[in-house]
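Section 5: illustrative case.
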């Protein structure tokens, strides 16, 4: 049985028109040739005309034949113009935020338990379970933030209990009412 190789780049295949030139390459060279003909027949032959013709010939051959990393110059130029016109992309970074329900000062509202269909006692038991850390998949950073929040909450609780004098802890940032 005879074996046959299967082409790998079927979608990128372009038929050859003249020799090794495909249609796009041929059009670039043809447009350059026609432009050179028009310039040479329209303008008198001077140094500027010769430089212009040389530049037209250079760019038509560069666009038709020259590749950088298997891409023609017209693709590079199109991608460059597209990149200049598009907006820069923003990179999303996760900002850790503890859900309100896990904060120590959270009070369960009866309307919430009615909406969820879970009895309030069961919900309170669930919240205590998570607050006590029986199941913890938090990172060290999240644990440190949780401890800091708990310290701030205990400070606020002591202030509200009757102390009214804020306790200055150098580890904790001052809140707006303390500054």
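Designed sequence:
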């Amino acid at each position: 049985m005879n074996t046959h190789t299967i082409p790998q780049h079927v979608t990128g295949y372009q038929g050859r028109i003249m020799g090794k030139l495909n249609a796009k390459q041929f059009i670039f060279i043809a447009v350059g040739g026609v432009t050179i003909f028009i310039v040479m027949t329209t303008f008198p032959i001077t140094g500027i005309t010769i430089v212009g013709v040389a530049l037209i010939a250079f760019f038509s051959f560069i666009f038709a034949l020259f590749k950088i990393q298997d891409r023609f110059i017209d693709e590079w130029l199109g991608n460059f113009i597209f990149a200049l016109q598009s907006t820069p992309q923003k990179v999303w970074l996760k900002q850790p935020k503890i859900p309100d329900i896990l904060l120590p000062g959270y009070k369960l509202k009866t309307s919430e338990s009615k909406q969820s269909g879970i009895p309030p006692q069961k919900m309170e038991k669930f919240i205590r379970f998570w607050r006590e850390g029986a199941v913890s998949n938090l990172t060290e950073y999240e644990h440190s933030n949780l401890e800091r929040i708990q310290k701030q909450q205990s400070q606020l609780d002591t202030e509200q209990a009757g102390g009214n004098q804020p306790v200055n802890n150098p580890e904790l940032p001052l809140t707006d009412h303390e500054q």
